[in-house]
Design brief:
The protein has 205 residues and is mainly beta. It has one domain (26-204): Porin (Beta Barrel). The protein is built from one helix and eleven strands; from the N terminus they run H-E-E-E-E-E-E-E-E-E-E-E. The chain has one helix at residues 2-19; strands spanning 31-42, 57-58, 61-71, 76-90, 97-111, 118-133, 137-141, 144-148, 152-165, 170-181, 192-204. Strands 1-3-4-5-6-9-10-11 form an eight-stranded antiparallel β-barrel. It is elongated and about 65 Å long. It starts with a helix and ends with a strand.
């Protein structure tokens, strides 16, 4: 009887040990994080009118960047992000034009600490977006020749994601984010509603 009880105790202790998560393998107050990420940008119409009978679009393409985060508590944090998308403008009568889109964001992050290595979160913030066209977009609007250059403006974003702490320092991050762009061209511009899905690797210290 004692032997059975002893074995049962050992099994219970082993199960608890397997399920136990070191406190360091979670979001902690006053901790910092550095992330590198890559993923997909899903674009939108670039102008509010047709150019030579077509509506230019920001193409779906790769996006990547780096993020720095500071956690005030185990729930609240702030994050600075620098992103780059080497995309292009499509649906042009004259052919695609390369466009590099750079974003800088300041975001608030709300973590849902569950006591496990898996930490869901929501994120939202504002920032600045700058476009760099390789060449002007040229065409006609109502029979008039036009030339459209790149521009910059504000951006707003919001998203959901999850962090998985593989160790007390190393983490993997998966995220989906909506991004509003005020406009990235200087004429006939239209606001853009874009989406980003990214996978990142991070280091906590």
């Amino acid at each position: 009887m004692l032997r059975s009880e002893g074995i049962a105790g050992l099994v219970a202790s082993g199960a608890l040990a397997l399920n136990a998560v070191p406190a360091a393998a979670q979001v902690q107050p006053s901790s910092q994080e550095v992330h590198a990420y890559g993923g997909q940008l899903f674009g939108d119409d670039l102008t509010d009118t047709t150019i030579s009978g077509r509506t230019p679009k920001l193409d779906d393409d790769v996006t990547y960047g780096i993020r720095y985060g500071y956690n005030f508590t185990d729930t609240w944090g702030v994050e600075l992000s620098l992103g780059q998308s080497a995309t292009s403008v499509t649906e042009l009568a004259s052919g695609d034009v390369d466009l590099d889109l750079t974003t800088v964001d300041v975001d608030a992050v709300w973590h849902f600490n569950s006591g496990s290595r898996f930490v869901p979160y929501v994120v939202a913030g504002v920032g600045y977006a700058s476009a760099d066209l390789d060449a002007p977009i040229r065409g006609t609007v109502n029979g008039r020749a036009v030339s459209i250059e790149d521009d910059s403006g504000f951006t707003v974003n919001a998203g959901v994601g999850a962090k998985y702490f593989a160790t007390d320092r190393f983490l993997v991050r998966l995220e989906a984010r909506y991004r509003y762009l005020d406009g990235v061209v200087d004429n006939f511009d239209d606001s853009l509603n874009t989406f980003e899905t990214t996978l990142g690797l991070g280091w906590k210290f």
